Every structure is written in C-alpha cells, then in structure tokens.
Amino acid sequence: MRHVFITASLLAAGFLAISTTQAANAPRIATVNLQQVLSDSTAGQDAQKDMVALRNKLQGQANDKEQKLKVLQDQIKTADSKSKDYATLQKSFQDSRNEYQQFVMLGQQELEAQRQQLLQPIEQEMMRVIDAYGRAHHYDFILSRGAAGAIFAASNYDITDAVTKALNADWAKMKKAQAAKGGQKSPPGGGQ
Q1: Sequence spans of domains, the chain
Q2: Does the predicted TM-score (pTM) go above 0.70?
Q3: CA distances in angstroms from 35 to 58, 90, 132, 164, 171, listed in the order given
C-alpha cells in the first residue's frame, strides 16, 4: 500500500512539474482596440478636429453652390421657355450642376487625402508604441481587437487603455521635441 502511495505522489508531483513548466512557457497574449486608441488618443482627437473643420468648410462651399443651383432652377421655372434668356439660363444651370457635382467629388477626395495625411503618422507611431509596449511588458502576441484581429478575447487581456496612455505620452514628447527644434511644423493631427 505504501508503494502505491509513493507512486501516486511521484506521479502527482510529475504532473505538477509538467503543468508548471507549461504555464511558464505559455505565450503572453494581449488585445488592443486600434480604433478606440485612435479615437481616445490626443493625436487622434486633434486629427478628428482638423477633419471636422475641413468637412465644415467644404460643406459650407457645397451649400453655397447648391443654393446657386436652386436660384437658377427657380429662374428657369419662372422664365418664358420661348425667350432667348431661357437657353442661357438652362446652360448656366447645367454648368452649375456639373460644377457642383465635380466639387462634391473632389471634396470627398480631398477629405480622404486629408484623413490619410493626418492618420498615417499617428498609425505609424501607434504601431511603434504597441511594439515598445509589448517588448517592455514581455508579451508574445498583441492582437488587434475587432474585425482584423481577435474574434474573441477576454477583457483582462485588453491593453487598449494602456496603449492610448503610452501614445499620448509619446505624442506629447514628439510635439515638445519638434517645438524645441525651432518651431518646425507640428506633426499632422497635432491640432492647432
């Protein structure tokens, strides 16, 4: 009987040693919500303000062009279709409508180009911060939480808030260093 107890104890100790070794070798995994970091970070909020300002400016210009179209359309409705001004009004309306449509298309392209210009350096810096954070905290994997990354992740693995804080601190250092270099252009998304 004693022999069975010793064997069972040795087996239990062996299993405990194996599970402890496996736990020590288990990869450290974290998740981060990149969209949330962008929206919550100082740099992302500054970029969003710049985008809203541009969108409002373009929207105001589009509204002016649309108002001009409405005025021309009203003039066409009240004009005599047999008068020589009618053809001129129709041409003006058509030209204005084409100009408006082109403006809207070019405005959308400008907004997208501005978005890329503002977000690209922030996204690059965010990836650098995530890499540094992962190395400093000894993670083996950091997965993007959302459509492109983890399908499921327990919230205790989520480092989104920590990455946002690290990006804010790093972004502030970058802006301060650029200002110290003699007022060079602030990074895109750096706000006013």
Answers
A1: 2-180
A2: no
A3: 25, 48, 19, 10, 17
